[in-house]
Amino acid sequence: MTAQLSDYDYDLPRELIAQRPVQRREESRMIVLHRDQQTIDHRRFRELKMFLRPDDLLVLNDTRVLPARRFSDDRAIEFLFLERLGPKRWKCLVRPGRKMRIGAVTKIDGVSLRVEEITDGGERIVTLDEDVDVYAGGSMPLPPYINRASDDKDAARYQTVFARAFGAVAAPTAGLHFTPEILHKIPHTFVTLHVGPGTFLPVRSENIAEHRMHSERFSISPEAANRINNARRIIAVGTTVVRVLETAAAKTRRLKAVAFRKRQIEPQSGETELFIYPPYDFRAVDVLLTNFHLPRSTLLMLVSAFAGREFLLRAYEEAIRERYRFYSYGDCMLIL
Questions:
Q1: Fewer CB within 10 A of the end CB, N or C, for the chain?
Q2: Which of 273, 222, 223 is nearest to 246 (CA)?
Q3: Rounded distance, CA 295 to CA 10, Å?
Q4: Would you call the peptide bond into 87 cis, given omega within 30 degrees of 0 as the criterion?
């Protein structure tokens, strides 16, 4: 299997990048990939249940997106607050970076903010004169390919209906299609992975094996681990859930010096830097529901490992011909 970055590329007409969600979550289109037969169907998300079996278990990511985007009082600087490091001290991304060198000062809601440090990844470590809630008055951090400012509608729609654990700066977008009514009819459980800004970082090495993933925090409760271990098939809702379950399965196998069946997961919390790309032996996930992903992205590589790169890219070509809507607010894909 190829490890070249250029083999994970495709051309997408810009007009297919969804700028708004469909009016009703469940009305999204769903392209269905049958790996065994190498065939493709075209459905609606509301038909998901017809592809599931009685003993299947949906696993969803219940992270909640923080209103982490703020602007300086003069609107000259955009901030994405990533992590509270201590009283009055934060890690954030800024734009434009050239205006926020070490020692630069601006104000948010009348409170002075000063750049103390610039990390190797370009994030700013800043201090504020007062220990304020930077998320109060913040807005949803929409991805950069959505070419508009976020508004009140995004506060609801760039959030899953089951979101509860604050900590993400990007939505687990495969979960955006669910309504409470649909979820109520399907056995499910939740894990948590707080999606970080690294989800949008490009892969810069032509040899993808040289790429190093960003770290993201995750947790699996005892109840969730028990349900996962006793399910017949696991349907992962999104690439974030795949990373959680595959990380947990690998850690459990290392910690327990005994032979396990294919899937065995212990309750745990920690961080994952797992980078999944072809070839990869999946230990925990049987079916994947996911949105469409950017060319040359780690997410496209993960889904390629699950579906097969050539089959996946053929499905992308067909989705483009059929005018599917792409990315965060777009349509979805079910890989059986």
A1: N
A2: 273
A3: 6
A4: no
Report DSSP state, residue 155: H
Assigned domain for 134 exists:
no
Residue 252 pLDDT level (bands cut at 50, 70, 90): confident
Domain total of the chain: 2
Single-letter residue type at 203: V
CA 97/CA 109 separation, integer angstroms: 20
Give pTM, 2 decimals. Answer: 0.93
Residue 117 shares a structural domain with residue 196 = no
Q: How far is CA 38 from CA 45, 61, 307, in A?
A: 20, 28, 9
Could you report the per-residue pLDDT of 183-195, keeping only the tens digit for each?
Answer: 999 999 999 999 9
Rounded to an integer, what distance in angstroms lies between the CA atom of residue 200 and that of residue 198? 5
Count of C-beta atoms within a 10 Å radius of residue 147: 9
